[in-house]
Specification:
By secondary structure, the protein is mainly alpha-helical. It has 18 helices and ten strands. The strands form four sheets. The protein has a three-stranded antiparallel β-sheet. It has a three-stranded antiparallel β-sheet with strand order 8-9-10. It has a two-stranded antiparallel ribbon with strand order 1-2. The chain is extended, with a radius of gyration of 32 Å. The relative contact order is 0.07.
């Protein structure tokens, strides 16, 4: 693939119809900056590539996790993204050296190179080498972006024809997808062969239509309404919609596991609701299991349906959850739930795995079973929750956390050490703002109380007589626009 003309500063200006001057100099500078971005990205890939460890060797799992964690901390990302970046760097430098050389020279934009790596992730090493040879022969320094994308897509389709398509049965999956807008909703995506999914959809439709018809008949005849689990049909005086019934039937249907007993949940579900939100005096969101924001009204509805509430105290200064005492090796149930508030995700830096089930309660300073007085205590200050991978890394001495007096944790990753980082304690984001609002309300109350007392004893009248009436020239009234501007310039609550 060749360009019609070589891309230079002059040809770029002619293509865009840009006259010589300030704009022309800016365009030329952007062209050079794009090429420098490519060279800089190549240097980063060269730095990341040595951290790659073969995934086929299970004996090297700890080494791979240790390096992913170190890279995640250094590049300010998650361990999952760090693993992808290391793998892509290895592919670019080791398996596709020709296109990497074009990237290093500044001929291949970063976006193009990233798109190419994503396109070859599921190809074999031999196929990647073929793509590398073909793409490197293209006129990457001059062809336009749309032509590069079209050619790459066509090249990738050749390999798709050679590869056997996966059977639909092998793609069966149920996955949880969170909303992008934190609106209190989530999505459960079910993937499978078309006949199975269509059969499930039709069974849900038939069930919903049948129940809806029975609800309408019951409403007309004044009989008890079937499947009105939340009382919505009775309150509204009409049958539930088919969409609501499909959801309710799917959600309330008992799961059949063929006689296999399913253990009860290990932990309760924690919904942390700020007290002012609970009282209806604020609409600050609640947190479901410490991670998912819930709208204030949804949180109030959930709380109203629960017979038992658990009070959790937070430091008004920083929102940190206040500790509970304990003097034994195995954490109490109350401590475990408190730890889940502190660590809804694995405590290891950059890890995004949740700690609802697949996690361990870990002593930061190891507990001494022979002499408990010498080892780390079983207290919230010395406990955190780690997913199994990072718990194994800590047990193996590959990561070493140290809890500081202020509650922060200093992590050293690697043996010998690769990187050290300090992680601040997690707290309730709403607590400091609630405390500030309460203090301001209290100060305003005290101010009005003092004014009332001064008015009662005649102090206000005495001051007005001594000072005389206000002079508008010396004491002009406040500007409403200025007051409004000051309010908007204040930091938001989150």
């Amino acid at each position: 693939m060749r360009a019609r003309a070589r891309l230079t500063e002059d040809s770029l200006l002619r293509r865009g119809g840009v006259e010589p001057g300030a704009d022309a100099r800016t365009i030329a500078r952007l062209l050079e900056e794009e090429r420098e971005d490519s060279r800089r990205h190549a240097r980063r890939l060269a730095d990341l590539a040595p951290f790659w460890i073969d995934h086929e060797d299970p004996d090297l799992d700890d080494d791979r996790e240790e390096r992913s964690l170190a890279v995640a901390i250094a590049t300010r990302t998650t361990t999952a993204i760090a693993s992808y970046r290391i793998a892509d760097a290895h592919t670019a430098v080791t398996e596709m050296p020709a296109t990497f050389e074009r990237l290093t020279a500044g001929d291949m934009p970063v976006e193009w190179h990233t798109r190419m790596l994503k396109a070859v992730r599921d190809l074999t090493a031999v196929q990647r080498a073929q793509v590398d040879e073909i793409v490197a022969s293209w006129d990457l320094a001059s062809v336009p972006a749309d032509r590069f994308r079209d050619e790459l897509r066509q090249l990738r389709s050749w390999f798709d024809r050679e590869m056997s398509a996966p059977r639909p049965e092998s793609l069966r999956d149920v996955s949880l997808e969170n909303s992008l807008h934190d609106d209190g909703t989530a999505c459960l995506r079910i993937t499978g062969p078309i006949p199975e999914i269509l059969d499930l959809a039709r069974r849900l439709d038939r069930s919903a239509k049948t129940v809806q018809a029975r609800q309408r008949r019951a409403l007309e005849e004044g009989e008890p309404i079937p499947f009105d689990l939340d009382g919505d049909a009775a309150r509204g005086g009409k049958a539930m919609s088919q969409a609501a019934l499909r959801y309710a039937i799917l959600l309330r249907t008992e799961l059949d596991t063929g006689g296999v007993e399913i253990p009860a949940p290990r932990h309760r579900v924690n919904v942390v609701v700020p007290v002012l939100t609970l009282m209806g005096l604020s609409d600050i969101p609640a947190l479901y299991d410490g991670i998912h924001p819930l709208p204030a009204q949804m949180a109030r509805d959930l709380a109203a349906a629960e017979p038992v509430w658990h009070r959790v105290l937070a430091d008004p200064a920083d929102g940190g959850f206040l500790p509970l005492p304990a003097e034994r090796y195995r954490p109490s149930a109350e401590q475990v739930e408190h730890l889940r508030l502190l660590h809804p995700r694995c405590a290891a830096p950059c890890c995004t795995h949740t700690t609802t089930d697949d996690a361990e309660n870990d002593h930061i300073e190891e507990f001494d079973h022979a002499d408990p007085a010498r080892g780390g205590p079983t207290s919230l200050h010395n406990l955190h929750r780690l997913d199994w991978r990072h718990h194994d890394l800590k047990t193996a001495g590959r990561i070493d956390p140290v809890r500081e007096p202020d509650g922060a944790t200093t992590w050293t990753v690697g043996s010998p050490a690769l990187i050290t980082t300090r992680v601040a304690p997690r707290g309730d984001l709403a607590a400091p703002h609630h405390a500030k609002a309460l203090m301001e309300s209290w100060e305003e109350f005290c101010w009005h109380r003092d004014l009332d007392q001064m008015q009662a004893i005649g102090e206000i009248d005495r001051i007005l007589q001594e000072w005389g009436p206000a002079d508008p020239l010396h004491d002009p009234p406040p500007d409403p626009e200025d007051e409004s501007r000051q309010r908007w310039e204040q930091d938001p609550p989150f």
